[in-house]
Amino acid sequence: MNTSLHVNPTPNPVSTPPGSPRRRALSAFLLLALSAYSFTATALTVPGTAVAQGPSGATASVPPISWGACPAAEPPYPDPSPRAQCATVRVPLDWSKPEGPKIGIFVARYRATDPARRIGVLMSNPGGPGVPGADEALYADDPVSGYSPDMLRRFDVIGFDPRGIGRSRGAVCDETITESIPTRPRDAAEFARLRTLNGRLADSCLKRTGPLAAHMDGESVARDMDAIRAALGESRISFIGHSYGTFLGERYARLFPGRLRALALDSAMDPDRPGAERYLTDASVTVDNALKRLAVWCEKETSCVLKGKDLIAVTDELFARADAGKLREPGPNGPTRTKVDADRLSDFLTFAVGKGGREETAKQLAALYTGMGEVRWMPDVTDIASRLVLCRDYDFRIRDHSQYQTILKRVVKAAPHVRYNSQALDTILGCQGWTMLPKPRPTQAADPLPPVLVANATLDQATPLPGARRMARSFPRATLFTMDVVGHWLYRRGGTEEAMRVIDAYLADPKG
Length: 512
What we know:
By secondary structure, the protein is α/β, with parallel strands linked by helices. Helix content is 37%, strand content 14%.
């Protein structure tokens, strides 16, 4: 495993940005149970109320947080750490109207265990989008997936469920509409139907959730983060974001650069707001390269069931058979009667190569090739919460089916052995016809940007390395740490502990 560290030695011209797997495996296990809870503690209006700034420069009053006990989890899920505290921070529903209607943001805190050595507040977000983030504090001391003891001694860990997510009043939409939406439009009529039904789905979110559905974008969440900072009584915070959480960290840095002590971005989103083609190309090429990495491993390792065969040639033949209608699902005694088309094969490769173990991925490819064995297909899951966020933060709009086909052909040419990244394509297609249009990026504040540490895997299909490089280049003082691995989310124990040590060292002393 190779690592590299690149530092911007001199200030770069600052480019203004255009517009999950989770670190805690335990927390992912808890999501369904904990998101069902609602927390009713409210911040009390007391002397010393702070203010947070809206986009027009007007301010919203933010009372200090009144901490209370955290909700218990239902068995068999473990309860939060006994050191965790919870509260609700009231923020404007629409930050352009700071004195308008308010909503509650569920916040959790794990207090520093060594107050005498306390550095300050470390706020975090686990990405998604659409993933509750309070678990970052609720389970901060988990021995398997929590923070290191030194980080817990030095920081108050602050986690929060972003607006419209989890315990911060989850958004509600008519999910039955998704059952009729074409997943891969084959012609102009299906593309038009896709757009119409996506628009209907977006409208159902507005009808069932109310105005909040139109205000779940990254800028609004970044302003919520500053309201939490104000309610905590902190002049500055440190922030660690993972995956989509890096977009929130970058957005916060642009809006409130003087209020950041340190900014660590793990598995970074592209800050330049790429359009549909670049977003899909970067993600697809990453999966294609990961497949090539798997082929090199298979040539050398006896544990690869396809050793002795050219794994790339095997995959190309699978696509040829799929195109000809001759690829079938494997079974225990030979091929079944169920056809596997090229789109389903791309979907399999996206997740098996990008997230699966090498031995198991090779075994399933062999099953498809021989017709005997078993393949674990990814279930069809529609993540509506991510659309409410990403379709506002990014502009993935495609003019028509003709342009869609042109984009796909160029992507397939760039990534011929996997054709495309199905996760990225799902995101793009989910935004076609979305009636809540992309939101313009906010004006950047005049203060100088803080130093930033960006960490990324070289073969990360969710946040490809080219986007992470653009993220680092967009800051005048940036360090890019990379690990030559296939995967997503480096800040975790196990195979990427080195990244955790590098990020912890930076957060403890961002000036080095």
